[in-house]
Amino acid sequence: MGVYDFTVTTATGDLQPLESYRGEVLLIVNTASKCGFTPQYKGLQQLYEEFHDQGFRVLGFPCNQFASQEPGTNEEIQQFCQTNYQVTFPVFAKIDVNGASADPLYKYLTQSAPGVLGTEAIKWNFTKFLIDRTGNVVKRFAPNTTPESIHDAILLLLSKPA
Fold first, then answer.
1. Which residues are annotated as active site (predicted)?
2. Which of 11, 18, 35, 63 is catalytic?
């Protein structure tokens, strides 16, 4: 089992198989519009713009499980991301990342790359998972890890063939 085995829901309600990203380096992030880390959208967009042509994608998954910091509808979230941060990478439908209702993709990600002391639960918004070109989870980054600080790890994965 790997990342490509999952299908997610777009902000417009369509199903999107992650298989369509096969061969690309992915950074999967749970996001929120009203969080202290929300300005990370800017850094995520910069990474996306810099590496997009080399086969890199950022995939955003809004989540309202942390202090209700993502209260908007999928449409409102899209508008917020585009208006405030000019986001052009995909921001999918709002999901849960923890608990019984956690999206299957996030159950897989947290099992594949546990956090500090082996905990699987996502601690907060903007936890990041770096995925290599073959769909393997390479590393989990804490919410306070800035997108800019992941630059070299992405560059390294992009330099490796699928």
1. 35
2. 35
